[in-house]
Amino acid sequence: MLKLVRTDSSNQDFQNLVKALDSELKQRDGEEHTFFAQFNKIDLIRHVVVAYQNNEVVGCGAMKEYTSGAMEIKRMFVPFEQRGKGIAGNVLDELEKWAQELGYSKCILETGLKQPEAIRLYEKNKYLRIANYGQYEKVSSSVCFEKILPTR
Predict the structure, then answer these.
(1) What is the H or E stretch that residue 16 is in?
(2) Whether the predicted model's global pTM rises above the 0.85 cut
(3) How confident is the model over 17-47, as pLDDT tens digits?
């Protein structure tokens, strides 16, 4: 059974998954990796979800406030051997529920065109493509999404 744990960025399992994520992204992003890495620091993230299957860490995601009404989804990752099992969708759903509980009305995120699995995940979970925002505004290899959260 999948167990989702709400924690923060001090969680060692989260930190280990982020190292694996960064390693994968470095290969995918190539020369652009340094640009993106500056926006993906994990210190002081207060809202992290770590997924466990039979006491084995199998995925993670995080979010941080972007505006007073929006949380930005960050650091979504499932190790390759665990993909295709719905773990990322469950982590994303838990982050959205948490954002709602905290009073946020939407979630936004950025991912890269070199991450088609991530794009499919967000589209499958009813995220709509929006204009690139903030630091990603003029980055042609970025794609941004938003999901309006249902009112409680």
Answers:
(1) helix 12-29
(2) yes
(3) 999 998 887 776 666 545 555 555 666 899 9
